[in-house]
Amino acid sequence: LASAIGRLACLRRTNVLFESAAAIVNNLTEARSKDMLKTAMRRYEKPQLLIIDELGYLPVDRIGAELLFQVLGNRYEKASTVITTNRSYKEWTKTFANDAVMTSAVLDRILHHCETVIIEGQSYRMKDRIEAEN
User: Fold this and answer.
1) pLDDT digit string (tens) for 71-101?
2) Global model pTM greater than 0.85
3) Is the terminal CB of the chain with fewer CB neighbours within 10 Å at N or C?
4) Domains in the chain, start-ordered, CATH in brackets?
């Protein structure tokens, strides 16, 4: 679904960046260590649509959580963001280094103008495997 939204946005000549949450954290952590965080942060602030894939799939440390918070905070009310995750909002504290205050601030910004789409059922990626086993 997120890929389709991104593709449609591209067809409408919208600047789109699709990247996993882990890649964003890794890129920003590396940039921070090289004193290039401001430049690297622009990569995630600039697109009209940022698609963050697999948020919460891998745990992030405190610094990574703060960097994600900065990305989301900097985009708040300025540009569109799509987030894919297999975690409920209640579980997001684990994603943001078990920091309830930071998680609350992130959710406050995200939920203010969001549309939440919950897809239940078998994973699309598992479809072929399930069919092969039957």
Assistant:
1) 999 999 999 999 999 999 999 999 999 999 9
2) yes
3) C
4) 2-133 (3.40.50.300)
